[in-house]
Amino acid sequence: MPMDASEIETLIKEALPDAKVVIRDLAGDGDHFAAEVVSESFRGKSRVQQHQLVYEALQGNMGGELHALALQTSVPE
Hints:
The protein is of the alpha+beta class. It has helices at about 5-15, 45-55, and strands at about 20-25, 30-40, 70-75. A three-stranded mixed sheet has the order 1-2-3. Helix 2 links the parallel strand 2 (about 30-40) and strand 3 (about 70-75).
């Protein structure tokens, strides 16, 4: 059973409470999403480390219930 956008957003915000999260369903199939995540938690971290924080927040759902996630991360301006 695929994840829905609100579930993805909730998991990310639980792990990164200050995050601003925008989720888009890319294919309309509930399997392919894009996420834009802006969090102070990313400051001083490499892009890979930022993405790892988001993947950890997804609690192992990446590659299972969540097939594909195009991820864009940044710190607040």
